[in-house]
Structure prediction request, 289 residues.
Amino acid sequence: MNKHEKIIDLLPFYASGTLSANEQTHVKQHLSACEECKAELELWQGLSQVIHSDYESQTAPPYVLSQALESIQSQPVRTNFFVKAWQIIRSQVPLVKKEIWPASLLILVLGFVVTLIADRLAFIYAVAPLVSAAGLAFIYGQEHDPAYELTLSTPISQIQILAARSALVFGYNFVIVTLLSGGLTVQYPADLVLPLMLEWIAPMTFLSTLGLCLSIFSNSGNAIFVSYLLWLGKYLLLTSDLQALLGQTGVLFLSFWQNPAALYFVSACLLLLLFVFVQRSSKLSQQLN
Prediction:
């Protein structure tokens, strides 16, 4: 292919203005001395003008853009469940009462020390459910959340907020007691610590759920009082003649505390009831606002 043929191949791009500066210079120099290429260029320039004028005259109807935007916005944003859960939990950390963290740690560590000094292995496992119940009694509601009104208007559902805060406080206490249980194996055999450790998880779950529910249905003071009273009642029945006085009622009460399946089931029912109540309350608040 000679230079003339190369220039002819470049003429459509020269007419549309898409050549590089170097190529434009070569074509312009050739056009100054070649009448045939000039005539060919005029044809391409005329065609280019027709195409541009026709393109500019075509405008999309106004509704096309709005429909496109609606289509984009209606597409659900898919986020990994665990990533979303972690983001919600992390967002709630600064909103939980700051006093809960050091208070729970201090009481549990003191329980650990008393357990070692008094040589009462069960002591820390008697304290742990009470600490968790007290912590969850102070995590939700206008009484404990300065930004409660803003919380009601957040795009995150109230159930997700409540679940995230509950998981934070309960998990925090669970981890501390688990670590302290590992420390107890220095003085006590592991096969003695492990059964006791497994025994307190179900009561801790129940008392924590009960404390949370009562704090929302009533107030935090009543939640702590009832939770502590029920837990204390269990030990009174074990260490006194009160069981004989209460008869079958006392037997059923003790058997409930000693049945993990029953404790977990009642906890699940309480949580379900609480979530329904919170969801309806938040919807009512939004309607009133």
Remarks:
- The chain has 14 helices and no strands.
- Residues 91-288 form one domain.
- The chain has a mean pLDDT of 82.
